[in-house]
Amino acid sequence: MNRTQTTAPVRIGIIGGGLMGRECASALARWFALVDFPVRAELTAVCELDQSRLDWFKQVPTVRLLSTNHHEFLANPGIDVVYAAVPHHLHESIYLDVLRAGKDLFAEKPFGIDLESARRVRDEAAKLGRFVRVSSEFPFFPGVQRVFQLARCGALGRLLEIRAGFHHSSDLDPSKPINWKRQNKFCGEIGVMGDLGLHVAHVPLRLGWRPASLYAQLQKVITQRPDGKGGTAACDTWDNAIIHTNTPIGDYTIPMTIELKRMAPTEMNTWYLEIIGTDRGARFSTKEPKTLWTYRRDKEQVWERSDLGFATIFPTITGAIFEPGFPDILQQMWAAYIAERAGQLGDRFGCATPDEAVASHKWWRAALESHRTQSVVAST
Ligand SMILES: NC(=O)c1ccc[n+]([C@@H]2O[C@H](COP(=O)([O-])OP(=O)(O)OC[C@H]3O[C@@H](n4cnc5c(N)ncnc54)[C@H](O)[C@@H]3O)[C@@H](O)[C@H]2O)c1
After folding, report:
1. What is the pLDDT of residues 54-67, one digit of tens each?
2. Which of 24, 108, 199 to mutate to test the pocket of ligand 1 (most atoms within 8 A of CB)?
3. pTM above 0.85, yes or no
4. Is the CB of residue 17 below 6 angstroms from any atom belonging to ligand 1?
């Protein structure tokens, strides 16, 4: 029997019903797709300032509270977990309000607008004993899991290099209007690193890989954009970041290169990870979402390609031959959050932790310093 039908649900509330708030609602709405999942989860409440966005959630039958005030929303006892998906300058204040209201938190990255902000939220959660994890869904692609396992079990031989990145391209269009993600006061001084960085840092951090030092090349390319009201507005965030790190792994220091780009021609949400060793290597990119590439040093040296299908961490009703996409990995990430909160994750891959988010912020802080001084700087 599917146990999801028998237990009381974890009641989830969303603060911020924009792009990601709606994705969360969609992942929870088809919870029944998870097979033999031990805990039920349902969306019960939404807080969103924009009335038309709030009204969208009226079509979700389990939602009982719609609010435009997050204090009123948090006073509601019918919420166990809050998913907060708001602009970065609001992360700290809203996350702290959630924790102090006695709720557990599923936070969005970058988990505070800067390093200090991230530390304050992490420390408050630890003090209050709340369960907190941070959103980062790409590791839940089956291909990424295979890369992770190969790296973790030491099958690759002596590591040669690691390349990880996340590329977008729509900002190349100078007529794309400004939004909060392109303004330092809302997005944070770390710019593209706050936007895309934790997605890329999550797997290396989970493998225990923490760069000791780094050199960063940061670029601001388009500095003015249409403001959507007939004028222009300053676009002052970093667009692209290329970060060259020295990362101690075992007895060696390995070059790990991280590329975070809003301006990578033709790339549309391309997340990739490549880990190369002397014996084997592994590579995954969202460009081929069902595919794992592995390198093997035999008599001949070959790259092999395997189609993995729908081999997700948490089984679903979806047939094994089908291919996973963004909504699927988002639901897998939610399943990991809910399972871990219930003490049922076991040895499966878990969501990014507050400590990992803080560690990633150290990299971005170091990258700013490296670019400013044009030098290699410590990053731990
Ligand atoms: N995990 C991912 O793949 C992913 C993708 C995109 C964005 N994000 C992150 O999600 C967060 C939100 O990004 P988004 O793209 O959904 O932004 P968005 O602008 O689409 O949505 C944010 C929403 O928050 C609402 N809001 C602002 N202040 C509020 C308040 N005080 N109370 C209630 N609602 C409020 C806004 O009205 C807006 O609808 C950011 O931290 C961002 O970095 C994550």
Report:
1. 999 999 999 999 99
2. 108
3. yes
4. yes
